[in-house]
Amino acid sequence: MSAESFETAIPILPSRSIDEQLDFYQALGFEVTYRQAKPNLYACVRHRIVELHFFVLKQLDPANSYSMCYVHVPDVDAVYKEFSENLKKKYRKVLTKGLPRISKPSDLMEDRRFNLIDPAGNRLLIGTKHTAIKLIVEETSKFASAFETSYRLMYAKDEPADAAKVLDHVLPKAEEASATLRYRAYVLRADIAVSMEEWAIAGTYVQEANRMTLSDTELGEVAEQFEKVKELRDAIERKERS
Fold first, then answer.
1. Tens digit of each residue's pLDDT (9 = 90 or more) over 126-148
2. What phi-psi label fits residue 158: left (phi over 0), alpha (psi between -120 and 50 degrees) or beta?
3. What number of other Cβ atoms are within 10 A of residue 119's Cβ?
4. Domain ranges of the chain
5. For position 1, what pLDDT does the model report?
């Protein structure tokens, strides 16, 4: 068998409703390339980054779906921008809660990625590989280990409740961590809270981060989190005004 036979893999994913799936993926910018009514419902969609096929599984529970696939792309931020803008046109907002939903891109050790969960609960992990391993934290301590676990639960697994439990266990001892790690932990906990719509908790940890005094060197190390604090503060203020 030639090597060319291994160049393309096409996920075949379950759905409760073909119409529901196609409506969502067309909103993202996918093209419907095939639809079959008999002998069974089946459909195909295609985008420049991936082709997906769907079949109907009537007993499917989207909230407990385990179906997923990883999609490698050259520029994950460009794909996220395209998808989120298309979702705004269709739904008048970026869907960040419930099903379907999309998360913002985040840096993990292996890649920078975002999660796309469709109406059937299928999870697409869309990412761009780093040219070199990127450590989440460079410290070795119980606090650092908990932070890394919480970070992965939040951004790789999309499990904010579990991420909160892990981080809350060590936050009372935050003073034992370095200033930059402590700052990152406060920002992570605030982001987790916003994702769960726990606005009071989010506000508390944004305030904790803002109260910290960091050197220029330390600010450079947490530049991404510093910008994240601004986003979180804006989200909290929008919620307070609504």
1. 999 999 888 888 888 999 999 99
2. left
3. 19
4. 3-129, 142-241
5. 36
